[in-house]
Please model this.
Amino acid sequence: MQDQREEVKKLTEKRDIILQMEHVTKSFASVQVLKDITIALKKGEILGLVGENGAGKSTLMNVLGGIHQRDGGKIYLEGKEFEPTNPKVSKAAGIAFVHQELNLFTNLTVYENLFITEMKRTKAKTIDKKTMKKIANEQLKELGIEGFDANTIVGTLPMGQRQLIEIIKAIMQDAKIIVLDEPTTSLSNKEKEKLFGIMHLLQEKGKSMIFISHILEDVFEHCEEIAVLRDGEIISQKKASETTNAEVIKQMVGRELNNIYPTVEKEIGEVAFVAKDICQEGRFENLGLEIREGEILGLFGLMGAGRTEFLRCLFGVDPISEGHISYKGQEIAPITPINCIKNGMAFITENRREEGLMMPKTIKENVVMASLDDICDKSFINRQKESEHTDKIVKELRVKTFDPSKQAVINLSGGNQQKVVFGKWVLKEPKIFFLDEPTRGVDVGAKYEIYSIINDLAKNKSSILIVSSEMEELMGMCDRILVMSHNKITGELEKGEYSQEGIMKAAIATGGGK
Amino acid sequence: MKQLKKVFSSVDAIIWFILAFLIVAMIAVPNFATMNNFKNILSQSCVLLTVACGVHFAVLNGGVDFSSTSIIALSSVVGASIMSETSGYLAGKWYAIPVALLAMLALGAVFGIVNGIAVTVFKMPSFIATMATQLIGTGIAVIYSSGKTIGGLPDSFADFGGGTLFGIIPNVLILALAVMLISHIICSRTLYGRRLYSVGTNPKAALISGIPVKKTIFWIFILSGLCSAVAGIIMMGQMQSGASSYGATLFNDIMGSIIVGGTSPAGGSGKIPNTVLGAVLIILINIALNLLNTPYFIITMIKGLIILFAAAIEVFRKRKERA
Model:
C-alpha cells in the first residue's frame, strides 16, 4: 500500500516535470566541462540556475539548445526522450533562449526583429508589414510594455527594452520553456522589475523558465527552485524556501576563496600611472584614475557602464576629445596605441578572437606580433631571436602546444589562447598593463595560472588595471577597486572594505561624480 | 617512406597541378614540347608574373588593385612618348631611356600614392578606389596617346627588350625574376612583410599590438604601383612600343594567378612563389589551348572553371584546418 502510494506520488511528480536532464556529460578536447548534470524543471515554474563563471552554465544551455552535442546522459522533454541535435530541433520543441548578449539587429525596427526568421508574407509573396506590425503591437500591449512600438528602430532603445524584445521573440515562437541567460546584467533596477513582472506574467500562462543569474537576491525572490552548478556538476537542486543565501554561496564556491586567487608578496610603491581629464564627446567627462607601482587596480561596472570604453580611450584605441596620461611624471602624448606601447603600456582586450589574436596564425607569429621591432635587425626578421623569444614565453606561461611554430592559435583551448595573448605582452615586460576581462571564457585551471601571471607582473613593479564583470575576481585579485556606472566613476573601495553590496551599490548608482 | 610523405605534403598542391598539366599537354597538344614553345612560355610569363606580384600585396590585405592594368598601359605610352626616336620628347638624347624608365616608375608610384590615400585617409574600400583610378588611368592613356601605338623606340632599348640570354631566356625575364625575388623577400623576411600579414589577418589586433596599420596599407599600393610600372617596362620592351591597350585584358589572369596560387582573397595568407606558380599555370593553359586553336571565349571559360576549382580547394582546406 505504502509503496503504491509512493509510486503514484512519483508519477504525478513526473507528470509535472516538463524538462528532465539525467547524468548529462560533455567534454571539449580533453577538458570535461559537464561532469554529471541531473536537473529537473517543473511546468509553470522558474528554476534559478546559479554558478560561478566557467562552471558550465553556458555549455549546459548550449547542449539543451542543440548548439553542442552532449557526450552522455539523457534529456526528457514532457516525459519523452529528447535529442537536441541542432538548434532547429530545440526551437521546434518549444525551447527559446534569451541570451546575455542580445541577438538583435539594431538597424532594424522592432517588428522586423520579431519576425526576422519568419517574415509574414502577403498572397503576392511580398513582405506583409501590416500584419506583422499588428501582431507585434498586440504582443507589446498584452505584456504591458510602453514607451516604444513596432516601428521603433531597435538601436534607439536602451538595453533594458531591447531585452524585452528578445523575450517577446521567445514568446512568439510559442515556447514552452524559456531560458534566460543573465538577462539583468545590463538593466537598471526599474527595468529589472519590469522584466520580472513579465516573467511572472508568463508563468501564469503556464510557461516554464530557467533563469541564470549571478544576483542571488533576484534568484531567491523570483524562483521556485534553485540549482547550483559547480565545475560541471549540479551540486544541489532545492526549493528556494528550503535553502539560504549563505548555503548557496558555499555550494557555488565549494572551496576557500584563497584557493582560487593566488597571493604573492609584493610592495606597492608610489603613484606611477596617471590619467587625467579624459573626455570623449557624448560619453566621458573629465574621467581620471591613478595606479601605483606594483598595484593591481580593479575596475568594476555593469554592462554598459563604460569601463571597456574608458580603457580603450586610455590606450588610444578609441578617440578622445581631451585628456592626458602619464607614467612617472612623464606625459605620454599623443595617446595612440603605438605611442602607448612605446612607453611600456600593454592592453589585453575583452575579445581575444577579434582584437587579441590572429586566429589562423601560429603561436609564434602571435607571440611576437607586438615585438616585431625587437626581433628585427634593421628591417629584416631575425628568425633565431623570434624562436628564442617564443620558446621563452611558451615555457614561462606554460602554453600547452606541440610546436609553437606550427600550431595555429585557433586550435588551442580558450585558456591557452588567452595565455598566448598574455605572452604577446609579457614579452614586452610592460610597466602598465590593462586587462579587460582577462579570464573570460577560460577554464578554472587556466584561470589560476593567469592570476599567477598577473601577480608576478605586479611583483615586478608593473601597474595593473583589471576590468571585470566578475565581482569576486576583482575582490580576490585587486588591491583597490574603482566602480563605474553610467560613464562615471561612482565608487572606490580599499582592500579592507570590500563587500558585494558596497560594490553593487556603486555600480547601480546613477552617477553624480566621484 | 614517412620522410617521402613529409616532402610530398609540404609541397603545395599547385606544383602537382602544374606537373600534371605539363604531362597531359606534352602528350595531347601538338607542338607543345618544342624549344620554340618553351621560349614562348618564358616570354609570355614575364608581364603577368611581375604585375601579379604587385597585386599579391593588395590581396594579402584582403583587397585588390584594379589600377595595375591601367598603370601598364599609361606607363608604356608615357615611356614610349619620351624615348621614341621618331616622336619622343627626348628623341636622340643620351638620357632619354633612363628618364623614360624613371618617369614610368614614378607614374606607378603616383598611382600607388593616390590609391593609398583613398584607402587609408578616405577609408574607401580598395575595390572602389582602384577601380576608379583604373578607369581614370586608362582614359588618360588613351587621350595622351590619341589611341595610337607609339613606336620607334631606341635600338638599345629595343635590343634589350626583345633580346635573349643564351638564346633562350628573355632579358626581360630577369627583370621579372628580380621583382619576384624582391617581393618574396619583402613578404617573408622583413618587418614590413610581417606587419602586412598581421594587418591582413586581423587589423584590429594589429592596431592594438602597435603595428602602424595605415602606413602598412599605404605602402601596399606603392609597391603594387611600382610592380605594375616594371610590368609596363617589360611590355614596352617586348612589344617594342607603347599603347593604351596594353594590359587591358590582363586583370582576370592576374587575379587568377593569385587565387590559383592559394592566396586567400580574405587576406592574411599566401606566398609569392605560389602566385608565381599560379601565373605559370595560367600561361601554360593559355598557350596549350592556343596551340589547339581553341576559340578565345572557350579559353576564358576554362580558366574560369580552374579558378573556381582552386577557390573550392582553398575553402575545403580551411574547413579542414578548423575541424
